[in-house]
Design a protein that fits this description.
Number of strands of chain B: 11
Radius of gyration of chain B: 13 Å
Distance between the termini of chain A: 41 Å
Shape of chain B: globular
Number of helices of chain B: 0
Distance between the termini of chain B: 36 Å
Largest interface: A-B, 24 and 30 residues
Helix content of chain A: under 10%
Oligomer: heterodimer
Radius of gyration of chain A: 14 Å
Order of helices and strands of chain B: EEEEEEEEEEE
Helix content of chain B: under 10%
Number of helices of chain A: 0
Structural class of chain B: mainly beta
Strand content of chain A: over 45%
Largest sheet of chain A: 6 strands, mixed
């Protein structure tokens, strides 16, 4: 079945460092891909999405490009802030089961001042 | 403000009791979902509903039940048959845009069963 694999955390960076969180997926069709962010004790917020190959999703300085050839959707940010500390989830939806999301296990990011 | 509300934020129950978690949305979304989150893991789908009076089992439906009598409401009951009910429960809703369902999540309910 479909699956998502993320790099393990925690990831610890200094403020203004460059961020990459790797995400690869396995899917039989052409899924939509998402990044969600979860702050402590809260629900998930949609960060960005891409719905077809070579699409780039971007929001709040974060970017991710849908790479069909490498089945990847890595999250990047050029300069992280302390306020970016959170858990980041990569997810896919193939449109089946009512648009069910299949999640990676999450990557915790900690940014130090 | 449009959004999804879940109540309560924290819930404590004794083993053997059923408990119902509330989820309400005012986004006018057709589809609603319940996910379960365990520490250090991604979310897993419990139930989903694409339309009023219809719902489908997700990947881990055993020990749970739902109803969808109104478009804006999708309550989840955790029954005594659920073997490991302690978890963080998240409700979501979405509308379909072509082949894409963009899901929005509520703040979650943390259930502790002792």
């Amino acid at each position: 079945g479909d699956s998502v694999t993320q790099m393990e955390g925690p990831v610890t960076l200094s403020e203004e460092a460059f961020l990459t969180i790797n995400c690869t997926y396995t899917a039989t069709g052409y899924p939509s891909l998402f990044w969600y962010v979860q702050y402590p004790g809260e629900g998930l917020q949609l960060l960005l999405k891409a719905t077809k190959a070579d699409d780039k999703g971007s929001n709040k300085g974060f970017e991710a490009t849908y790479r069909k050839e490498t089945t990847s959707f890595h999250l990047e940010k050029g300069s992280v802030q302390v306020s970016d500390s959170a858990v980041y989830f990569c997810a896919l939806s193939d449109g089946n089961q009512g648009g069910k999301l299949i999640f990676g296990q999450g990557t915790e990011l900690s940014v130090k001042p | 403000d449009g959004g999804i509300t879940q109540s309560p934020k924290y819930l404590f129950r004794k083993e053997g009791q059923n408990v119902t978690l509330s989820c309400e949305q005012n986004l006018n979304h057709d589809a609603m979902y319940w996910y379960r989150q365990d520490p250090g893991q991604g979310l897993r789908l419990i139930y989903y509903s694409q339309i009023v009076n219809d719902f489908q089992k997700g990947d881990i439906a055993e020990g749970y039940s739902v109803s969808r009598e109104k478009k804006e409401s999708f309550p989840l009951t955790v029954t005594s048959a659920q073997k490991n009910p302690t978890a963080f429960y998240l409700c979501a809703s979405s509308n379909r845009q072509g082949a894409v369902y963009e899901q929005y999540f509520g703040p979650g309910t943390r259930l502790t069963v002792t």
